[in-house]
Amino acid sequence: MLPNTSDFSEKVRAVVQAIAMGETKTYKEVATLAGNPKAARAVANIMAKNYDPLIPCHRVIRSDGTLGGYNRGGLTVKKQLLEKEGAVL
Q1: Is 80 a catalytic residue?
Q2: 10 burial class (0-12, 13-18, 19+ CB within 10 angstroms)?
Q3: Which of 30, 63, 83, 89 is the most buried (most CB within 10 A)?
């Protein structure tokens, strides 16, 4: 575990790391898989602070199907990455 991170943060990172190329999960789905279905906003905050290239945070989207945020280039880059991977948006 990384210093100064919670167990939940580590679970979120593990869930997101396991999202296959071309697939997406919602913040709520990630929260549920990490053990706290009511923590979608926490997942969004964890992803907003993620700069680890091994954690594909661009694959996490909002429940309404919109992209949400992306800290590595904005929504245009997030959309391009997902389209390149073949994700259905």
Answers
A1: no
A2: middle
A3: 30
**Residue of 64, 60, 87, 89 lying closest to 72 (CA atoms):** 60
CA distance 49 to 43: 10
Class of domain 7-85: mainly alpha
Q: Residue ranges of the domains in the chain? A: 7-85
Catalytic hit among 19, 33, 57, 82: 57
> Model-level pTM?
0.91
Model confidence pLDDT, tens digit, residues 4-56: 458 999 999 999 999 999 999 999 999 999 999 999 999 999 999 999 999 99
Cβ-Cβ contacts under 8 Å for 39 (sequence gap 6 or more) = 8, 31
